[in-house]
Design brief:
Elements (H helix, E strand, L loop, with lengths): L28 E3 L2 E5 L7 H14 L4 E5 L7 H5 L6 E2 L4 E2 L1 E2 L5 E3 L16 H13 L4 E3 L1 E5 L6 H9 L4 E6 L3 H16 L4 E6 L4 E2 L6 E2 L7 H8 L4 E3 L4 H8 L12 H9 L5
Parallel strand pairs: 1-8, 2-9, 2-10, 3-7, 3-9, 10-11, 11-14
Antiparallel strand pairs: 4-5, 6-7, 12-13
Helix pairs in contact: 3-4
């Protein structure tokens, strides 16, 4: 590092190994813990896992927030039945609170219509995500979950670089191909020096409502083997449950019942980031 360093990495052309691109949150925000929820591909239930973890944290007495960074496919407002629009004063934005008090920010809370397409290039979307972090008045928040877009593109990279993540949770499904995609997500986290704190296998099984017999429609679970391969100790399995889909469609995910993610949340809350 140069003796003339201004500590403003955003305007620095130096190839300093100590560059820190993280953006501080705003003066009216104190976010104690930030967990990113990621997936290597779409359609594996990342957003519903984000929503359920936030609901469980709120039930545990934590002041909880969700940042919806899946800008081109935001689904968090629909899951919570949020119809109110986010307001601002020209310099800051105020999150919309769910029925149980979870602070939420999503592009769909700013658009006139939730079905309006977001035809933006990557740098514009990445800039919006930074604004959600630094310009939203998050207040005193014990834990924030960031619903990230699938894959390893511009927006996940922006979140990894710009927001001080304590760690990530990866959501996957049992198919073998997805296992390869999970490895890409793990490798990206390792490259960015962000801990992988948990692995969730969604769509893992179906339980017969009459006899309780368990069926694995996508084949036997590979959760334990995948977690062991990457040294991930906190895992969870979620079933194919039509009730969860109905609750999301009705905007009532806060009413879900089930303990599939309880152990994972306990691990997230117990984790101490020494960085």
């Amino acid at each position: 590092m140069s003796e003339e360093c201004t500590h403003d990495c955003s305007t620095c052309s130096s190839k300093c190994s100590e560059k820190d691109l993280r953006v501080p949150c705003g003066p009216f925000s104190n976010v104690k813990r930030v967990i990113g929820v990621v997936s290597g591909k779409g359609g594996v239930g990342k957003s519903i896992v984000t929503s359920m973890l936030a609901v469980l944290a709120e039930r545990a007495g934590m002041k909880t927030a969700i940042m919806d960074a899946d800008v081109t496919g935001p689904s968090i407002p629909r899951a919570f039945g949020l119809l109110e629009k986010a307001m601002g004063d020209g310099e800051t934005l105020y999150p919309v609170e769910t029925r149980t008090g979870i602070k939420t920010m999503s592009l769909n809370l700013l658009l006139d219509s939730e079905t309006a397409p977001v035809v933006w290039r990557g740098p514009v979307i990445a800039g919006l995500v930074k604004q959600f972090w630094k310009d939203v008045v998050w207040g005193n928040t014990d834990i924030m979950f960031i619903d990230m877009p699938p894959g390893t593109g511009d927006v996940p990279l922006t979140v990894f670089q710009s927001i001080p993540l304590d760690g990530i949770v990866i959501v996957t499904s049992p198919q073998e191909l997805v296992g390869m995609i999970v490895e890409k997500a793990v490798n990206m986290a390792n490259m960015m020096q962000v801990p992988v704190l948990g692995l969730v296998e969604n769509l893992s099984y179906v339980r017969c409502p009459d006899c309780g017999h368990v069926i694995h429609p996508f084949g036997e679970s590979r959760l334990d083997a995948t977690a062991a391969k990457h040294g991930i100790t906190a895992t969870a399995q979620m079933p194919i449950d039509p009730t969860l889909a109905k609750l999301c469609d009705a905007g009532n995910i806060e009413s879900f019942e089930g303990d599939w993610l309880n152990g994972l949340l306990d691990s997230l809350l117990a984790y101490k980031n020494v960085d």
